[in-house]
Amino acid sequence: MDGSGDRPKIDTTVPHVARIWNYWLGGKDNYEVDQQVGDEITRMLPTVPVLARASRQFLNRAVSHLAGEAGVRQFLDIGTGLPTVDNTHEVAQRLAPDARIVYVDNDPLVLTHAQAMLTSTEEGACDYIDADLRNPEYILENAARTLDFDRPVALMLMGILEFITDDEEAYRIVDHLVGALAPGSYLVMYDGTNVIHGEASDRIVEVWNESGNAPLVLRSPEQIARFFKGLDILEPGLVPVSQWRPDPNPFGEPEAVDAYGAVGRKP
């Protein structure tokens, strides 16, 4: 429950962001209506699946750094989406088996899969909260069953804030969540932009918003940077997620994608 009424049934007639994202990542937990919208968007901008994969790799690298080098043992992942390869708890617990992870989403299909697949190590913990990002106090209250907010927590907001279309509301939500975290905590987030592909990205948003899906908005890097106000941003700063500490490869720097992200530490 998210404190706002009964959980809706899974609607297979309306495309859903988590299922479309799953489709782009090569998953099987999606329906024909999701595939149709996913294919329409890909025809307009063939690099969209590249963005989907780059965002997942950004999560992997950020969590690896935090659980490994930074010593973080608690993660609050809001807007989890459907479980795929290398979910937050899998990445964190490979490096720190005692890591504790709380996932938050409000999609009934995600909930069903999360209960079956998001299982923890014996040393750590893994919990799931059925809640909406717009209710941060409810999230914090329930996450406290698993996480100790007197100790550092990594707050993960991966591509979810673009669905809070009012900028001031989005900033208030993040400020509320970060304000509840102990010093030494981290914010890891990215948001969609139109910096790289311009009008093509804008047109994709129009198609997305007309599809019956949850509406979204693109933000400029300057607007995204506002979410990190008061935090110490780790190198290399706010960049396309594909270019945040990429793994070495012989082909040079990865292609930039229309999603900018960063990792910030709370002093």
Structure description:
It is built from nine helices and eight strands. The chain is α/β, with parallel strands linked by helices. Strands 1, 2, 3, 4, 5, 6, 7 and 8 form an eight-stranded mixed β-sheet that branches. The protein is globular, with a radius of gyration of 17 Å. The N terminus is likely disordered.
Q: Which radius of gyration do the C-alpha atoms yield?
A: 17 Å
Total strands: the figure is: 8
Helix/strand/pairing category = alpha/beta
Order of helices and strands: HHHEHEHEHEHEHHEEE
| Uncertain regions spanning at least 5 consecutive residues | 1-8
- The best one-word shape is globular
- Report the mean per-residue pLDDT as an integer: 88
Q: What is the terminal-to-terminal distance?
A: 34 Å
The helix content is 25-40%
Discrete helix count? 9
Largest sheet: 8 strands, mixed
Work out the strand percent. Answer: 5-15%
